Amino acid sequence: MKLAKLTYDDIDINKINLNDPKVYKNIYKKGNTIGVFQMESAEARQMNIDAQTDNIEDVIALNALNRPACKAMFPDFVENKQHPENMKLIHEDLRSILQSTYGVLLYQEQSLSIFRLANFPDSEVDLARRAIGKKDMEIMKSLEEKLRDKVVKDEDGHILWHYGLKQRGWADKQIEDIWKLLLKQATYSFNKGHSTAYGLLSYITAWLKTYYPTEFMTALLNSEIGDYEKIAKYIIECKKMNVKVIEPDINKSIDFFSISKSSILFGINMIKNVGDSVIPDIINNRPYQSFNDFITRCNIGKRATIALIKSGAFNEFNKDKSTLLYEYCKSAYTPTVYKPVKNLKTKKQMFELGLVEDEITWKDKDLCLARLNAYNKNKYIKKEKERYEKCYKEFEEKYMQGSIEDWQFETLSMYLTVDPFKELRKILKPFDDMGEGIGLIAGTIFAIENKVDKKNNKYAFVSLINQESKIIEAVTWSSIYSRYQEFIKSGTKIMCLGKKKDTLFSIDEIKLLDEWKKELKGSVYNN
Q1: pTM of the full structure
Q2: Neighbour tally for 265: CB within 10 Å
Q3: DSSP track, 1-16
Q4: Cα(32)–Cα(302) distance, rounded to whole angstroms?
Q5: Is it the case that residue 527 has pLDDT exceeding 60?
Q6: Whose CB has fewer CB within 10 Å in the chain, the N or C terminal residue?
Q7: How far is residue 188's CA from residue 204's CA, in Å, rounded to a whole number?
Q8: Could you please report the per-residue DSSP string of 353-388?
Q9: According to the CATH classification, is domain 422-526 in 1.10.260.40?
Q10: DSSP 476
């Protein structure tokens, strides 16, 4: 709200339009609910698509329906919403009670309305409320007779109270059916008051996402600092929303994500290997006129400087990352100091080195010393060159392996400005379009959860970012894990053959993506 320059008055539920068609069309109906309160899960997104959520009552209902004991009601909810003329009610008395949930008994309050319908006094309706809220089946069963039909008389036989749905013309089968639903409610049901609060907050976040997308996503990213998996998910959502997220800038980025010219600027705090302790030095020494200016005035250590280079933080200086890494290696190298000698070697040594050819030359000590120092300096230069080349080779092997895209993923845990899977979109189906069974997926590993099975064998759940910038959850069972363990590392780009079931992909074979591309040389891939 601060980024969007809004106040709480701007999102007051008594003032905001809860029936804004743009919010429902762009967010709920399309399942674009990443970042929307209570609606982020894949299941919740699909439920909104299936229900074509188009009003606040639907939002409130879906909050309740997306609960373990309520999910079984969802198909009826959708069917009755889409085809109200076919909606079947146990009894017409329920129409007004269940109208907002399309004939589905969903909320605790609806159950209590049915007890009132059966002429329960308020004190006993409250007893039913406690029974449902506390899942007390004994109390619930004690209410069954009254719900059906019970007459309470005084000692003289005068009717004091007449309970039950029977007196309203309900048939025994209808009462039996509603009683079964009420018993189910007592195992788990959602309070509409809670669901309403959640639903309204859900709508407000959807409204902010609709009208302030850049500000909303910036705040969302900042809410998950340190959780690279969630950050990656939200970056992917930004791409879908056409909200541009750009690499960090050494002169503009702050600790966290910020807005720069309608784009989201990556925060320094989110660059891997750049610790919190060095951020004040980076910010307080600004502005930097060049990379050399930066390393001269801001000594933050090798690890952090290399991470800044690979992340793209120095792009404004118009030098590629490889050049900057080379320059940094050169600047960080400390050569030994050459010192001329003041004393000559022995006569024999000088002759063996070819620095003296006769006795006359040997007697000229100044000439011999000059020749010895010239010899030593040439030797020093050669040795220093070899020492630097060794240092650079070690630096290159340790810090300069992989591609520009690998470096971006290494430091930012995602691809922002590069796309290593661009050509794969022509070959691989979108993951959601793949049928269940054998299939092929590709992606970069960005999260690994190692496990041990009952036989003490290692296996792992692996999260991949695929060619759609979609996060795919995959599993390598123990027999597969043991064969491909060397490939299962964060940042590795792989091609996987396996089986899809629901949203999980079970891996059977793995190949490094580059090797797979080579094997396809001359095929469709290269045409």
Answers
A1: 0.78
A2: 21
A3: -TTTT--GGGG-TTTS
A4: 41
A5: no
A6: C
A7: 27
A8: TTS--SHHHHH-HHHHHHHHHHHHHHHHHHHHHHHH
A9: no
A10: E
DSSP string, 381-429: HHHHHHHHHHHHHHHHHHHS-S-HHHHHHHHHSS-SS--TTGGGGGTSP
Architecture of domain 212-325: Orthogonal Bundle (1.10)
Query: In this structure, what is the dihedral angle of CA atoms 65, 67, 73, 79, given to the nearest 10 degrees?
Result: 40
Give me the helices (H) in 163-270, please.
172-187, 192-211, 213-222, 228-240
Instruction: Count CA atoms closer than 13 A to 384's CA, side-chain side.
Output: 13
Q: What is the mean pLDDT of residues 9-37?
A: 95
Backbone angles phi, psi at 473, to 5 degrees: -95, 125
Phi (first) and psi of residue 288, to 5 degrees:
-105, 135
DSSP symbol at 49? H
pLDDT at 524 over 70: no
Which of 434, 453, 454, 451 is closest to 442 using CA atoms? 434
Residue at 332: amino acid letter: A
pLDDT at residue 185 is higher than 70: yes
What pLDDT is stored for residue 228 in this prediction?
Answer: 74
CB under 8 Å to 498, separation ≥6 — which residues?
Answer: 438, 439, 441, 474, 505, 506, 507, 508, 509
Q: How far apart are CA 459 and CA 477, in angstroms?
A: 5
Spell out the alpha helix ranges (H) of 33-83.
42-51, 56-65, 74-82
Q: In whole angstroms, how far apart are CA 129 and each of 90, 112, 177, 242, 282?
A: 22, 7, 20, 48, 59
Q: Rounded to an integer, what distance in angstroms lies between the CA atom of residue 430 and that of residue 377? A: 65
Supply the pLDDT for residue 521: 60
CATH 2.40.50.140 residue ranges for the chain: 422-526
| CA 161 to chain CA centroid, nearest Å | 59
Indicate the Cα dihedral angle 248, 251, 255, 257, nearest 10°: -50
pLDDT in tens, 40-87: 988 899 999 999 999 999 999 999 999 877 888 999 999 999 999 999
Q: How far apart, in Å, are the Cα atoms of 437 and each of 264, 290, 463, 505, 507?
A: 39, 54, 19, 9, 11
Residue 252 banded pLDDT, cuts 50, 70, 90 = very high
**Residue intervals in the chain for CATH 1.10.150.870:** 212-325
